[in-house]
Automatic annotation (TrEMBL):
The lineage of its organism: Bacteria, Pseudomonadati, Bacteroidota, Flavobacteriia, Flavobacteriales. This is Uncharacterized protein. It comes from the Bacteria.
């Protein structure tokens, strides 16, 4: 929730990432009130199996256009620009 509130939804991050990243958020709600459809839960479980074997949340995975993992990180108390800079550091061509 902090990652969403402090980084992803900030106008600064959105402007920086707009032309460089395709963002996909996979949610894994714990509360029954926020339960996902069975289909969505299965898709998210498959993503977690592929990219998050340790079950670390939140997890940000940076992939290239071929699906190769370039880097992973979690929430860090950074400014939106600093967080963006860490993400692009995984691939200098970004």
């Amino acid at each position: 929730m902090k990652l969403e509130k402090e980084i992803w939804s900030s106008p600064e991050f959105q402007k920086l990432a707009k032309d460089r990243f395709v963002m996909l958020k996979a949610d894994f709600p714990r509360r029954k009130a926020n339960k996902l459809s069975d289909e969505q839960a299965a898709q998210n479980a498959k993503l977690a199996e592929m990219y998050n074997e340790q079950g670390f949340f939140p997890l940000v995975v940076v992939l290239n256009s071929s699906g190769k993992v370039l880097g992973k990180m979690g929430y860090e108390k950074l400014s939106p620009k600093s967080y963006y800079n860490k993400l692009i550091s995984f691939d200098p061509s970004l």
